[in-house]
Amino acid sequence: MWERSSGRVITVVAVALLVVAAVPGIGVLASTERSTPPAQMAPGPTFQQGVDTDSVRLIVGVAPNGSATWTVQYWTRLDDENTTAAFESLQEDIRANPANYSDRFASRMRSTVSAAENSTGREMNASGFAVSAETRTPPQYGVVAYTFQWDGFAAVDGDTLRVGDAIEGLFLDERTRLVVEWPAEYTTARVTPEPDERRTNAVVWRGAETSFVSGEPIIVLEPAPETSAAATATPTAAGGDGAGGDGGPSTAAPDGGPGPLPLLGLGLLVALVGGVAWRYRDRLRDGASGPAVDVDAADGSDAVGAAAGAAGAAPESEREDLLSNEERVLQFVREQGGRVKQQEIVEAFDWTEARTSQIVRDLRDDGSLEGFRLGRENVLKLPDEE
C-alpha cells in the first residue's frame, strides 16, 4: 500500500467509476489493435470529500447464464482523525442521498455496457445499481462500494462460459485488483494470463503484478467432472452435489460474505455469537489433544468426516462440525502456533476476504484475538502469544 505523504493535502474523494479509453465510445473495452492503449477503470474525482483511496477492488461474480454481478470497492485506511471524520461525513451523505452517487456511476456504466454490447455482438444490459459505505476492521478501513448487474457479460456456449471479451485489455493500476468468481459447479479450462492468486472458485489479478494485453483476460469455465457425472447419474441429487456450496455468485458474495453479491457493503450481517458461551466452550477445548482441523469436515461435509480414518475419529469430526466460525478460527490460530496471517484463514476455510474480516472483527472486539500489520499483511495472534 502506498504511503500518505506528511502534510499532503488529500483531495481524492469518494468515487464513481471513471472509464477512460483511447477511442470514444469504447468504454472499458480496449481495441483489438495492439496500437490502441488499453482501457482503464479508476477512481474519478466526483465529490470532494477529503478522502484518499488506498486500493480498489473490482469483483465480478459470474452466473451460469452469463450475467455477472459487479462490485466495485474503494478502500481507504482510516489511520488519522481527519481521514476518519471525512469518511464518516461521506458515509452519512451516501446513506442520506445514495442517488447522488449511484446515478452518475450508473450513467457511466450503461455507456460502458452499451459499447461492450456493440463490440461483442451479444445482447447486454446493466441494472440494479446501488452504492453503500461502511467501515471494516482489522485494521480500520472505510469502504465505498458500487454494485450492479451486467447481463450478457460472459459468452455462453452450451455448458461452457467464456469470460473476458467485454473487458479486454482492462487497465489495472498498482492499487487495483480484479477478482473473478464463478459457481462451485464449474472449473477452469483456461485462464490467461496466469492469475496472481487462485482460489477455490475464483482468480485474482493485481495491477501491481499483471498487465492485460490485447485479448486478455480470458477465463473459460466448464462444468466440473464430478458435477457432470452426478447430474447424469442422479439428476435429483445434483443440487446437493457440491464443492462446498459457497462458490456461486447467487449464494455467496465475493469479498463480501454470505448472501447475494449486491450485499457487498450494505448487507454484511453480523453473526452475533454469545461471547461468554463460545469462549467457555473454547476454554473447555484448551489442552485437549487431537488431529488438525479438517476444513471440509468443519464445513459440514458428512462424507469427508466419515472417511476420516480410524473409527475413533468419528466423534472428533462430529464435534468439529458443531463449532461456530469464531471457534474454528481460534482453533486454527492455536494449531498454527498462536499467530497467523489473516490471508491464511481465508485460504484454509475457503471464505471470502470480507467474510473473514467480519469474523476476525468480532473476535478482536471480544478480545479473543489481537492483530497488527506486518508489511502489507494483517497478522493475527492470541492475546497471550508473545
Automatic annotation (TrEMBL):
<dbReference type="Pfam" id="PF24036">
    <property type="entry name" value="DUF7345"/>
</dbReference>
<dbReference type="InterPro" id="IPR055769">
    <property type="entry name" value="DUF7345"/>
</dbReference>
<feature type="domain" description="DUF7345">
    <location>
        <begin position="60"/>
        <end position="186"/>
    </location>
</feature>
<dbReference type="Pfam" id="PF24034">
    <property type="entry name" value="DUF7343"/>
</dbReference>
<feature type="compositionally biased region" description="Gly residues">
    <location>
        <begin position="239"/>
        <end position="248"/>
    </location>
</feature>
<feature type="domain" description="DUF7343">
    <location>
        <begin position="322"/>
        <end position="383"/>
    </location>
</feature>
<feature type="region of interest" description="Disordered">
    <location>
        <begin position="227"/>
        <end position="258"/>
    </location>
</feature>
<protein>
    <recommendedName>
        <fullName>DUF4897 domain-containing protein</fullName>
    </recommendedName>
</protein>
<feature type="compositionally biased region" description="Low complexity">
    <location>
        <begin position="227"/>
        <end position="238"/>
    </location>
</feature>
<dbReference type="InterPro" id="IPR055767">
    <property type="entry name" value="DUF7343"/>
</dbReference>
